Structure to design on (334 residues):
């Protein structure tokens, strides 16, 4: 029987609260301990990790810098810093952090994160080599199998990816992403309209109607079939079922953009950029929309809002600088 939150140790309780997205309560627990031990690096790193889960990257970075100024090789701090770099689309720097952390504290999850960083850099063969370091001794390690399937997808080795995802499903049958990915890979060679109809039947089933990944897969197939308005609606359902998954929100926004429904595109992509300022595709699409609407001032307002929460974010600063010049010229012309 699983122990309830109040009866867990501090570490277990923080994890218990994070898993349930009770971030305010978890923060309160950590801060209470920090009052007793203000310089404790583990507690600071735990708080930084909690901020990371809430996309509070600037606050997380301040805490991590404090830890690393005292101990430049602190493994948990280096891990969190690597995660920050990944969020900021800087996988090379992330990889360096994960490898330094692993040298001090050799744990499997750091190998997994290194493989993900390599994947983001397009170094797919090296990513596979990293994953095999664990899979060769733990062939049923679910996170590593799942990541291997994703890497093989990137390499367009779809038959091998399908085989790996099916092995992952044997280990953990309940993962909705893996189940959706297996269905997607199996349907690659079949007519789009037929796949759409089958998926529509699937998401209407009682057991799948709340499956965000299945709704996301249906949305993807609708989009591929040219039904962008219907795809946007399905991506919205998927996003409502899994609000933390930014992919669904972004894809809904891109569908609205293709459908020239600019207010809805701005709503989705604006929220996505607030939560992930490093996504250049989202930022560029928003820039195009605001330019087409003749509203650069509103785009600048959005960028300034983001900079208030992510000060020093260079890509946002650069874009804001360019827009500010345009807005200034526009004002002079008037």
């Amino acid at each position: 029987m699983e122990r309830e939150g109040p009866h867990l140790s501090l570490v277990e309780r923080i994890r218990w609260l994070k898993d349930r997205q009770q971030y305010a309560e978890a923060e309160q627990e950590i801060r209470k301990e920090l009052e007793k031990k203000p310089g404790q690096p583990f507690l600071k790193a735990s708080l930084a990790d909690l901020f990371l889960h809430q996309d509070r990257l600037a606050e997380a970075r301040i805490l991590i810098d404090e830890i690393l100024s005292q101990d430049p090789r602190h493994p948990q701090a280096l891990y969190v810093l690597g995660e920050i770099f990944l969020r900021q689309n800087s996988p090379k720097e992330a990889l360096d952090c994960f490898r330094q952390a692993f040298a001090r504290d050799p744990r499997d999850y750091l190998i997994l994160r290194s493989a993900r960083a390599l994947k983001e850099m397009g170094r797919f063969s090296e990513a596979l080599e990293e994953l095999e370091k664990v899979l060769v001794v733990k062939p049923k390690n679910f996170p590593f199998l799942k990541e291997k399937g994703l890497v093989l997808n990137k390499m367009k080795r779809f038959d091998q990816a399908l085989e790996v995802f099916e092995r992952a499903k044997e280990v953990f049958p309940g993962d909705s992403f893996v189940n959706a990915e297996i269905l997607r890979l199996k349907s690659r060679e079949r007519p789009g309209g037929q796949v759409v109809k089958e998926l529509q039947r699937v998401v209407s089933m009682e057991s799948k109607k709340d499956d965000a990944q299945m709704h996301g897969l249906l949305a993807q197939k609708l989009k591929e079939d040219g039904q962008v308005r219907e795809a946007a609606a399905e991506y919205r359902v998927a996003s409502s079922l899994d609000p933390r998954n930014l992919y669904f929100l972004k894809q809904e926004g891109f569908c609205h953009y293709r459908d020239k429904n600019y207010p809805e595109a701005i709503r989705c992509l604006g929220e996505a950029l607030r939560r992930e300022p490093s996504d250049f595709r989202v930022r560029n699409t928003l820039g195009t929309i605001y330019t087409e609407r003749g509203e650069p001032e509103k785009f600048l307002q959005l960028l300034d809002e983001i900079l208030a929460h992510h000060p020093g974010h260079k890509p946002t600063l650069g874009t804001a600088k360019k827009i500010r010049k345009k807005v200034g010229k526009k004002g002079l012309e008037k």
